[in-house]
Amino acid sequence: MSPTSETARDGRRLVIVESPAKAKTIKGYLGPGYVVEASVGHIRDLPSGAAEVPAKYTGEVRRLGVDVEHDFEPIYVVNSDKKSQVAKLKSLLADADELLLATDEDREGEAIAWHLQQVLKPKVPVRRMVFHEITKDAIQEAVRNPRDLNQRLVDAQETRRILDRLYGYEVSPVLWKKVARGLSAGRVQSVATRLVVERERERIAFRSASYWDLVGTFSTGRAGDAADPESFGARLTTVDGRRVATGRDFGPDGRLKGASAQVLHLDETAARALAAALADTAFAVRSVESKPYRRSPYAPFRTTTLQQEASRKLGFGAKRTMQVAQKLYENGFITYMRTDSTTLSETAVAAARAQVKQLYGESYLPDAPRVYASKVKNAQEAHEAIRPSGDRFRTPAETRLSGDEFRLYELIWMRTVASQMKDAVGQSVTVRVGGHSADGRDVEFSASGKIITFHGFLKAYVEGADDPNAELDDRERRLPQVTEGDPLAAEQLAPEGHATKPPARYTEASLVKELEEREIGRPSTYASIIGTILDRGYVFKKGTALVPSFLSFAVVGLLEKHFGRLVDYDFTARMEDDLDRIARGEAKAVPWLRRFYFGDGDVDAASAAHAGNGDGDHLGGLKELVTDLGAIDAREVSSFPVGDGIVLRVGRYGPYVERKGEDGAEQRADVPDDLPPDELTVQLAGELLAKPTGDYELGTDPATGHAIVAKDGRYGPYVTEILPEDAPKTGKNAVKPRTASLLKSMSLETVTLEDALRLLTLPRVVGTDPADDQEITAQNGRFGPYLRKGTDSRSLETEEQMFTITLDEALAIYAQPKQRGRRAAAPPLKELGADPVSGKPVVVKDGRFGPYVTDGETNATLRKDDDVETITPERGFELLAEKRSKGPAKKTAKKAPAKKAAAKKTTTAKAATATKTAAKTAAKTAAKKTAAKTTAKKAPAKKTTAKAAAPAESGSADLPVSEQV
Fold it and tell me: Active site includes 336?
């Protein structure tokens, strides 16, 4: 029976989903008796500030939003921006005969459905409608087979929410008091930050080792072809039976590992001497070892593997990947994108096998369907892997998608189809070549080859790698067809030097992989966690690498020393196990929360006594930990020795280095915010301290008698006057020193007293416009010199005009129409070649904010260390990749102005008609202008975006910031 006929029989049904896009798609699959409306995400949550808490609550309940004394009862409030939507839903529900809650099928979706039921208080039957793809068949099947709310899933999600609130709202104030205001701590956020910090510590402690070997090119002496090459390369592996050292034989201290006593460490001198001794050696094949090669397809995507591959292949960050995937899901192109399952339904397997047969032929189709079991602990197998939706997969071309959505859909489609194809098979071969040097030493070289005789699934899809130097699965290496004893001639024996490298920094893809392998957090939250640590300034990006800030060193150091269990990897993973046990009904939420927070109560093992707080520094509970802060030395946790008496400190305004000078006075110098910690060496710190402090005494202003100095501030060099000690600094009579930024043509080393006095005359009054009696001033602004008259600003062509322009010249500028729109495009400053991601030509251009690289789609400003003349194509591509990883800038639409009261009706119909026509024309014109302004309006600043992205945890003066996990 169709949903339409059911409706005709059963009456009117209200279906509530999360997003308008999802509502629009689903509405098209249901009959006229259904009303589909969006809740627009969560409609209520824990309060984000004390002002939102009802007046009846006081004390700790008001601060936390959770009543910890009464079974950790959460205080939920309807979000202020959702009150009108709730009113709309209640109005629609009043006319409905049944309510279907069609939110996502995961824990968070179940919780949203529960909140809707609690707030709307329906008096009609309520059912849960679930589906993992938005297709006509799936939606109609979900309508025919609704279920009840799963209270266990709701309890598990609510426990997570309360746990994260207690963690964030209790630990964050400790960071405020001991490190800096505005910081946040979180159950998974802090552990993820610790991983990045620990990797940087490893890089700081790392000492590189140098080692050498030989690379030989050997010839068979016969003519070759593509299948049987004439020559091949091989690397020296042993000398007199001792294995030649490679990078894996050295420890992070740059020394050979203890187990490598029998390893031969060659330096440059020894390597060159050995090459010379082998110049006349007759070489021969000592062994040929051939093994069958087989590679099975990769499992279909789950959330984390999709994020990793989108990072490797498309340059997407985790957040961008999930945003694009959300759109694909809501518009019916893919199945639900938050899943830890690799399972495919029978329908999906049939669709994939049909496309394998259609696109690649019967020979690529295995006899039986492939079944994939999830490797993720506590995977929700009821969910499906991420795949194209429907019982017949649309090819990427058939979707008519474009841009990011097309590229991500294509990735998902290829991976899904490939998962149902045959193995790739071939042969792997190892050839060992030996000989004796002139001084009697026995040497052996080795070469490895791989031949793929049947590509199988590799025809459709090849997985990427985090290591850019790693060899991909479809790469072949062909060796000559040789047998044991065949003579070989050494065409070249080249000594080659190597140096061990520090462990690579995490990328978004590798951090997601690490978190999943350690079973920390839930895969569906990783994108938001990475976004949080980036937005908070704990981590920044250098290319695709995640680099910890000095601030994160201070935060992690404090948490490790005083809240060790909270950022312990195993403890965090065990907490996740407990939350899953609550979801399965094997543990109770309240005893577990009590143990975590208070550390009291006789809780048996089944309710997580052993996995709640455990032993050690946590036995007393979180509350006791955050109450006694006397042992935390704020200066100590923010100080890190660099060497030679130099200490790095994390201050209120950023990191700086400090040491005592020969006269006992403290020397200080700011450290650039974007300096990777492993690059702060003793030498660099010394250079920063050796630079002038930025205070240059230029002389005395003859008009005031005040000293004039030039300084180097955090926002650039400037000049200012030194006021007398008795000058009032507060109150109505307070005097502020005159200050002015240096012009682009000036520097601290060359600025003179005359220059400074001239700068301090700005803003300069040019005169008064006789037409409107408004004052015109010449000023130096962020974007260069300009004139200002009231709210009307006009750019000047040169900085010198600020001091020389006359009133007549200024009036002439204002007499011209104000230029709007873009100027004619200037020719590029440099061409860098085709971008490896977009394939489009990359050029360097000069923009409003300075030079930048662009491929026509993405723009990235050059950093202060980049130079137009010396920038390489690789650096340009790196800047673009970094910009793409941040995703598109969000635009904030302007609110439409309130409509003016309608004009009074005139006594004649003609006048009324004229008035209506004029009003309609004016409305259209206003709408066009508003649309233009909205389009032109720039994206908000990064911090604003971060706050908007997580309103439930935005923090306030009395409530700290936490994460949503």
Answer: yes
